[in-house]
Amino acid sequence: MGTLSRQAAIVGVDESDQIGRIPEKSSLQQHMEASYNALADAGLSIKDVDAVYCAATSPLTIAEYFGITPRHTDGTSVGGSSFVIHVAHALEAIAAGRCEVALITHGEAGRSQRRSGGADMGTPGAQYELPFGIASPPMTYAMACTRYMHLYGEDRTRQAMAEVAMATRKWANLNPKAFFYQEKMTFDDYHNSRWVVWPFHLPDCCLTTDGGGACVVVSPEVARSCRKKPVWVLGAGEGHDHSMISQMPDLTRTIAYLSGREAMRTAGVSHRDIDLAMIYDSFTYTVLTTLESLGFCGRGEAPDFVAEQRTAPGGDFAMNTNGGGLSYCHTGMYGMFLLLEATRQLRGECGPRQVQDCKLSLVNGTGGNLSSTGTLVLAAD
Amino acid sequence: MSTQPQAAQQRYTGPVPLPQQESDYYWQKCKQHELWLRFCNHCSEAYFYPRDICPNCFSRQTTWVKASGKGELYTFAIVHQIPRPNYQGPLPYIIAMVKLVEGPTMPTSIVGVEPDPQYIKIGMPVEVTFEDITENISLPKFKPA
């Protein structure tokens, strides 16, 4: 994809009007508010949009609700990583001349509209995992984490999980939009909290909030006419290697080991160049395995990598500066919000949590049961 | 959040697998308290979960083999909270993956041991034990061997 580098830019991002506990709004309302706000951020009109990208919800539903007739559509739905992958697909479509203004939209009433029952009991997951009570992401990710602890040490893994939870909370304390903006956390709070699924304490698990987010990706020509400086897509990679957790080829390595390598290769950058890492934190453990899979450190080395609050404000590895899925918001498919924060940091819009001289950000979304990843390298103008 | 285990044993209210054409034999054998695996005649590998195509080599030359029901604990977690409001079973419980001596790893739950990490060790030998949840379905769970 080397030739596609800088062939598209993110020019507009925003959340829906409110994120958090918003049970009265539908998912479509969340989509609409986020898209409206992101287009305003870009200085573009809905009439400019000629491509619609979304996951979980059908692009047909979104386009009808918005009153638009796109000439290009992508409904890739591979879990919370989908929107990160959508950016790469938009880049490809724009470079191929299939569209100029791609609206990537997400909205989910995660807290209030949990699915229960009604599942197709003939699927592999429903036949072979669900009847054993393997029924939700905290359970599937926990089994991967236990394996990691077995291989690399329970105590140091536990400490690393606490480090990630704490560091992420400190960033949330700097973000007024974060669910836990005003709630501090100590290491004692972490260790004394209740179990959700051992080995996960409550602060090891992401929030379940309502909300929406949207991201506008455009051609270089359109980018020059937008309100704010573009954020360029330098490189991208994607992949998936299973769906059910019991089918994961290696429980302690995600396919980010390929998507990350591809994103950095196509961007022509190395780990040392990255100023900000936005790493999908569905669980604290997700961050550890992802840092290793991306090659920021070796296998089993993440506990040393994140030690002593290295990823917290003031640390030398800026990560998840919005407060993450752990402490800012997590609607069920959090990947969109990685894009929002990376864009804002690269524009220098982040106030007290702004990363100094933030020129290059790596974004890694993880979806399903550690199943799919999408990696992007984004650059300031 | 936990309810009496007796209630769960009296009448199973959890999810019930719906056998498909390619998995019907598996569930029939589970009903007879036998664990069978799909086996690929082309690459000579047993695999899980049962399907007509071999996930290792995409061959359709597949058959069934009876498994020993023995293996070792590959990983586990202990569920203290379940997001399903209609869940009626006892908490906490142990979910797991077991690596069978025949090769494949399968998802399951562990019974016959306290749901406490100090009693559950990855690598410990386990063997299958069946739980009859309906007239037609028995679940292959595992207990310490």
List the helices and strands and how they pair.
The complex is a heterodimer of chains A (381) and B (145).
Chain A: E1 9-15, H1 27-42, E2 51-54, H2 59-66, E3 72-74, H3 82-95, E4 101-109, H4 124-128, H5 137-152, H6 154-172, H7 187-192, E5 195-198, E6 200-201, E7 210-218, H8 220-223, E8 231-240, H9 256-267, E9 276-279, H10 284-293, H11 302-305, H12 324-327, H13 335-347, E10 360-367, E11 372-380
Helix pairs in contact in A: 5-6, 6-10
Chain B: H1 5-10, H2 24-31, E1 36-40, E2 46-47, E3 62-66, E4 70-79, E5 93-100, E6 105-110, E7 125-132, E8 138-144
Write up this protein.
The complex is a heterodimer of chains A (381) and B (145). By secondary structure, chain A is of the alpha/beta class. Chain A has one domain: Thiolase/Chalcone synthase (Peroxisomal Thiolase, Chain A, domain 1), CATH 3.40.47.10. The longest helix of chain A has 19 residues. Chain A is globular. The mean pLDDT of chain A is 96. Chain B is mostly beta strands. Chain B has one domain. In chain B, 10% of the residues lie in helices and 35% in strands. Chain B contains two helices and eight strands, in the order ααββββββββ. In chain B, the strands form two sheets. In chain B, strands 6-5-4-7-8 form a five-stranded antiparallel β-sheet. Chain B has a three-stranded antiparallel β-sheet with strand order 2-1-3, covered by helices on one side. Classes of the chains: A alpha/beta (381), B mainly beta (145). The interface between A and B is large, with 40 and 43 residues.
Keywords:
heterodimer; A: 381 residues; alpha/beta; Peroxisomal Thiolase, Chain A, domain 1; two-stranded antiparallel ribbon; 13 helices; B: 145 residues; mainly beta; five-stranded antiparallel beta sheet; three-stranded antiparallel beta sheet; globular; disordered N terminus
